[in-house]
Amino acid sequence: MTRDAFTLPDLKDPYFRIKHLSNKEDEDKQRGLRAILHGKPKSFASVLTRDLKLLADLKLTTPRTADECRLASLPRGSFFMSFPIKLAGRYLSRDDDVFYATENPVRKDKAFKVPLAAAASWKGNLRWVCLTRLNDWLIGGDEDGEKPDFKADRENAIEKFVERRVCLWRLFGDEKPEGGENNEIDTFLDDLPPVEAREDVKKKYWETLRKLCRAEENQHPRHQGRLRFFPTFFDNIDLAVLNPHSRATRVNANLVTLECAPRGAKGRFALLYIAPQHAGNGDKEARREEIAADMAEVGKAIRDMLRVYGFSAKKSSGFGTVFETLPRPEGDESGRKEDLSEYQPAFVVKPIDEGELIDHFAKKGTSKWKVGDVAEKIAAAANALKEGKL
């Protein structure tokens, strides 16, 4: 038997064919990978569709409904949101697969090889957006016209800043690592206020945390965060080519080929907020205010992350944003429409008072929902919480 017998040139599965390209020359890798991704008939697209269906059959996809997260069994004040998204800018990430046809593969599920945005990536990006919003509020105020003044109204400005920082602590958890040493987030937030107010802000912040956690003066409160994220699986893969230029000569050096989820790829974003029993320290009105503040911040941050900042690598260059209008079902060649439940958004809240779950997207159908509509529904629910109507 010859050596060529082990090269397996007739493999039908595209993933194995891509693996087979890893021992080729760079030019052959690129040509081979493009041939697999864009080949006719679209064998790769059909395999991706097959794997997404298998994930759905195994109930491993991004949850669509509150029942999949068992929201009814969680404490009152918890909420769940899920809605489809369609990429307006390519999504870039980095997989840890060493043997691949390109040095920059997009991150994929380990078992099914479906491109995804990991849950940890969503958390990191949303936290970064919340930190950016906090910084913008200090510099120029927010969309409500509120801007802190540490000179004219020092005490009120310190209190407002601490409230916003504690809100981020509730949502995302500790700023410091397990060892208690400073990290980038902790240092960034400590240095945000004006120099003359930093020590007072820091003292007020830690006093507030220790009071919330009922911790001793020398103890460091530990908190996991109330938000839970889920991976987003995309339905397409493509290649992107970057053409970096030398700043000295203004001439392109080497083309960089990146695997990505392309513009137009569809996925689903989902998030779960778990309100702990001790929220508000036993005071029902304080619990409402606390959860409403968390809900309002989450809604605004999600809107800005998806439409303004992006959630991809190289997001400062416009990668990783989504279209304002949520994707809608399309008819295939036979005129049959896709499953409507695939495109139905959901924002479900478990009321503070007695009552059943409330879905703010209860109206089914093919309405043209937008990312802004999701943010508005969340803001309306937050106001209803404050007013005692939810």
Q: How far apart are the first and last residues' alpha carbons, in Å?
A: 74 Å
Q: If strands are numbered along the chain, what order do they take across the biggest sheet?
A: 3-7-1-8-9
Number of E-type strands: 9
Strand content: 5-15%
Number of domains: 2
Order of helices and strands: HHHEEHHHHEEEEEHEEH
Structural class: alpha+beta
**What is the helix content?**
25-40%
Major beta-sheet overview: 5 strands, antiparallel
Which whole number gives the mean pLDDT? Answer: 82
Count every helix, treating DSSP H or I runs of 4 or more residues as helices: 9
Cα radius of gyration in angstroms: 24 Å
Task: Give the uncertain stretches in residue-range form.
Answer: 1-10, 332-336
Shape: globular
Account of the protein in words:
There is one protein chain. The chain has 390 residues and is α+β, with helices and mostly antiparallel strands. It has two domains: 3-118 and 231-386, no CATH class; 127-213, no CATH class. Helices cover 36% and strands 10% of the residues. It contains nine helices and nine strands. The strands form three sheets. The protein has a five-stranded antiparallel β-sheet with strand order 3-7-1-8-9, with helices on one face. A two-stranded antiparallel ribbon has the order 2-4. A two-stranded antiparallel sheet has the order 5-6. Helix 4 packs across helix 8 (284-309). The longest helix has 26 residues, at 284-309. The chain starts with 13 loop residues before the first helix and ends with a helix. Residues 1-10 and 332-336 have low confidence and may be disordered.
